[in-house]
């Protein structure tokens, strides 16, 4: 069960890393002079930046969750030490805290 989840997480991390590298490609390309809208371009950069930091945060959460699986404390709230409910883990498999502590 945990192994399956772990490979799901690993899979997701790879997906996110691919996304980040295609964001970097977007940054590198699309800089031709025809694209005159400077403002629009900057806005686009902001969107890409936001997407990249979101992806990085998710990677961080997922790799933390994998570490917790390896240490045998996956599903344990990192704040109060209680078990994180199954339902919560289904919705948010990388959750670090129980519902009470997350709020
Ligand atoms: Zn808690």
Secondary structure elements and pairings:
Layout: H1 2-28, H2 38-71, H3 86-91, H4 99-102
Helix pairs in contact: 1-2
The structure holds zinc ion.
Characteristics:
2 domains, mainly alpha, 103 residues, 69% helix, elongated, binds zinc ion
Write up this protein.
- With 103 residues, the chain is an all-alpha fold.
- It folds into two domains: 2-72; 75-103, no CATH class.
- It is 69% helix and 0% strand.
- Helix 1 (2-28) runs antiparallel to helix 2 (38-71).
- The longest helix is centred in the middle third of the chain and has 34 residues, at 38-71.
- It is elongated, with a radius of gyration of 18 Å.
- The protein starts with a helix and ends with a helix.
- The model has no long low-confidence stretch (mean pLDDT 87).
- It binds zinc ion (ZN).
- Zinc ion (ZN) binds at residues 77, 79-80, 82, 97-98, 100-101.
């Amino acid at each position: 069960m945990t192994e399956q989840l772990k490979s799901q997480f690993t899979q997701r991390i790879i997906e996110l890393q691919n996304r980040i590298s295609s964001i970097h490609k977007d940054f590198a390309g699309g800089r031709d002079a025809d694209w005159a809208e400077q403002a629009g371009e900057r806005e686009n950069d902001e969107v890409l930046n936001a997407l990249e930091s979101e992806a990085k945060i998710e990677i961080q959460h997922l790799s933390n969750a994998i570490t917790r699986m390896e240490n045998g404390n996956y599903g344990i709230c990192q704040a109060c030490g209680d078990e994180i409910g199954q339902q919560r883990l289904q919705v948010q498999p990388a959750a670090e805290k129980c519902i009470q502590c997350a709020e």
